[in-house]
Design goal:
Number of strands: 3
Order of helices and strands: HHHHEEHE
CATH architecture of one domain: 2-Layer Sandwich
Distance between the termini: 115 Å
Radius of gyration: 35 Å
Strand order of the largest sheet: 2-1-3
Helix content: 40-55%
Structural class: alpha+beta
Number of helices: 5
CATH class of one domain: Alpha Beta
CATH topology of one domain: TolA/TonB C-terminal domain
Strand content: 15-25%
Length: about 150
Amino acid sequence: MTTRIWIPIVTLALAATFACKDEQETVSPDDASADADADESEPEPEPAAPEADAPAVMTKASFDEAIHEHFDDVTNCYLEALSANAELAGTFSAEFIFDEDGTVTSVTAVEGSTLIDEGMINCVNEKAKAWMFDKPSEPGMTMRYDYELAPAE
């Protein structure tokens, strides 16, 4: 009968011993930094990558890049206006106003424009509404671009 009592006690003692060996040794914060400095073989964790789905915020460079991608649209609007007025030339200082998602809400000719043709401005305004820009820092943000337009020689 005594053997029956000792077997469960020995089994519990062995289980407790192995369970204790699986536990990690605790280290004070002061000792942890010293251990981290000593063990340089472990790579430091990489900083978190920006979310792939996060929209880019509009910058002057990203605005200019999008404008350059759509030069053909502005050129086509200018050529259409040029067919009605062969002398049409100058600077179209365009102000773009953006919605919160980067869509153009309007394009207008602003101070500094020497080329003011309502048909051309309306054409650019309509085409620009289909262009996509990065998200502006705030709704209603404006950006300006100067187009130098003249007939081919």
